[in-house]
Amino acid sequence: MKFEYTIDGGDFTNAGYASSQVKKVLKQLNVDPKLIKRVVVCLYEAEVNVVAHAYSGIIYTDISTDKIVVKLVDKGPGIPDIDLAMQKGFSTASTEVREMGFGAGMGLPNIKNNADEFKLESTVNQGTTLEIAVFLNQ
Amino acid sequence: MPIKQMTMTLKEVANILDAKVLCGHDSLDSEVDFAFSSDLMSDVLTTQIDRMVLLTGLANVQAIRTAEMSDVECIVFVRNKKATQEMIDLACENSIVLLECKSSMFKASGLLYGKGLKAVF
C-alpha cells in the first residue's frame, strides 16, 4: 500500500498533516500502537525538518506485511556535514522553528532511535533524502 | 515522607489544577499515570510512555500535533496560555483532552507530583 504527500517549506500551519494521515491509515490497518508511534514520531520529526529547512518535499510511504518504509525527498540547501547534523544538540534551525518547540538538535537522533533502518543522504544546494523503515514482525 | 504514586483520572487532574476543560469532556474518566512538563516538543517526542499528561506553556498547533504523534492523552496549558479554536478543533478530532490553568509550570507540576502522578524520567 503506497501513499504520497507533498510538503511546502515554511508552512508550519500544516506541518504534521501528512504524519496525521499516515497514523490514521496505520490505525485502520490495526498495526500495533507502539509501532505506529515509532513510525509517526519519525515521520513527524522528519516532516518538521523539511518544513523548517527545505523549499519543498515529497513523502513516500510504503506499507507492506513485514515493514513500513517512509522516504522523504526534499529540495533545499542540503546538509553539509551529516555526522555533525546527527549529533545531539546540533541545530541550524531559525528562531521561528525554535518558537514552534523544535530546533534543539534532537530530531535526527530521535528518528534514528525509533527506526529499524535509517538512511540519510544529502547534496548541498540540491536537497536531502531520508529513508527509514520500521519492521512489523519483531 | 515518600509520595504515594497513583493513577488519576483526567477529571482529577483538572480539579487539582483548578483547570478549565476546553475539549474532551467525554474522556475525563480516562486514567493517567505520568506527567511530563516541557515547552520543547522535540523532548516530548522522545518519551516512550503511554497514559501521560503533558504540561506546557507552548500554545500552538504543533503542541497538539506532538501530542497526537506521542499518544499523549491530555495537554495542560499552564500560565494562562490560551488555545486557539484551530488547536481545540484539532485536539477534538484526535480525542485529546485540553485543559487551561493559571498556575506556572512549576506549580502545576508540583501539584500533580504531590498528588502521586509519576515522572517520566
Summary keywords:
heterodimer; A: 138 residues; alpha+beta; Heat Shock Protein 90; 5-stranded antiparallel sheet; 5 strands; 36% helix; globular; B: 121 residues; alpha/beta; Udp-n-acetylmuramoylalanyl-d-glutamate--2,6- Diaminopimelate Ligase, Chain: A, domain 1; 6-stranded mixed sheet; two-stranded antiparallel ribbon; 5 helices
Number of helices of chain A: 5
CATH architecture of chain B: 3-Layer(aba) Sandwich
CATH class of chain A: Alpha Beta
Q: Can you identify the CATH class of chain B?
A: Alpha Beta
Strand content of chain A: 25-35%
**CATH topology-level fold name of chain B:** Udp-n-acetylmuramoylalanyl-d-glutamate--2,6- Diaminopimelate Ligase, Chain: A, domain 1
Q: Can you list the strand order of the major beta sheet of chain B? A: 2-7-6-5-4-8
Give a structural overview.
The complex is a heterodimer of chains A (138) and B (121). Chain A is an alpha+beta fold and 138 residues long. Chain A has a single domain, classed as 2-Layer Sandwich (Heat Shock Protein 90). Chain A has helices spanning 17-28, 33-53, 82-85, 95-99, 107-114; strands spanning 2-8, 56-63, 67-75, 117-123, 127-135. In chain A, strands 1-2-3-5-4 form a five-stranded antiparallel beta sheet, with helices on one face. In chain A, strand 2 (56-63) and strand 3 (67-75) form a beta hairpin. Chain A is globular, with a radius of gyration of 14 Å. With 121 residues, chain B is an alpha/beta fold. Chain B has helices at residues 10-17, 41-44, 61-70, 85-93, 105-114; strands spanning 8-9, 20-23, 31-32, 34-37, 52-56, 74-77, 97-100, 118-119. The radius of gyration of chain B is 13 Å and the shape is globular. The A-B interface holds A 12-13, 15-16, 19-20, 23, 33, 37, 40-41, 44-45, 48, 100-104, 106-107, 110, 113 and B 39-43, 45-46, 58, 60-63, 65-66, 68-71, 94.
